[in-house]
Amino acid sequence: MTISIRTLGFSAFLIGAAGAVSAAECIAPANPGGGWDFTCRQIGKILHEIGQESAPVQVTNMAGGGGGLAYSHVVNERNDDADLIVAASSATATRLAQNAYAGMTADQVRFVGAIGIDPGVIAVAADSPYMSLKDLVDAALADPGSVAFGGGSAVGGFDHLKPLMILKAAGLEDITMIKYIGLDGGADAVTQTVGGFTQAMTGDISEIVGFLKAGEVRALAVLTEERVPGFDDIPTAKEQGYDVVAGNWRGLYVPRGISDDQFHAWADKLQAVADSDAWAEAMAANGLAPFTMVGDDFQGYIDGLIADINQMSRDIGVIQ
Questions:
Q1: Are residues 88 and 147 in the same domain?
Q2: For residues 116 and 167, is the Cβ–Cβ distance under 8 A?
Q3: What's the whole-model pTM score?
Q4: Do residue 133 and residue 148 come from a single domain?
Q5: Containing domain of residue 58, as a range?
């Protein structure tokens, strides 16, 4: 009888302890450091600080396949885990659109929201004749071969796709006529543009800050919904007539198999993080601009973005 009582008592302790330590988990699909790890650690930390999660969010680093290993793990092993969130970015959407995750598709998870962005930018040399985004776009429409863009991603990468989105919005049908030179990072792309080897640079605003301060480049447009705080003199592409928002957004996806209520609960929690002073401080400290879109609105945005990237990738021959 003594053994039975002790056994029951120990079982009750395990059940209680399991409940006490149970916490949400955020998978960062990369090694520590970098964007996905930042997303998990900052959002997870703030979720707990503002009372949206009762316990600290556990961060699991799962590097491999440019995010593909984590994606496969979620789809195949954690499909109904309502306590799981996964860091995502524009790279996630691009790789899904280009079928880079070994047959995995975007509809196998649900994209719950994004709450910050490293804004995309189009920049030219300080002495460039192109004084506005319209000047550059008009030149490319009139003679596509006369305008070459330099960027820090490979052909077919997100830097390549940013000017193509703008030109497609402007009515250019054959985007393969646009020259793009993939370089080893944003700094090299700026250097090539300043040197006159390319007519414009496509990248993120964080890559041109030093060159802006030195007066070596002019930013023709940021690819955000609104002007970026601290860079208020740079107009958006949208206000210049090109409905394009493109940058390295920071957000989350969740398993496909969770309920609608659980999905919207995560959307509400992410919105609470976006509204917090702690997140505003984290964005300022890490060069991010506001970009808040959660729940069904964000899922709709991702669906459209992936369709556009897939079509453009086919048009330029990245995928068949």
A1: no
A2: no
A3: 0.80
A4: yes
A5: 23-117+247-315
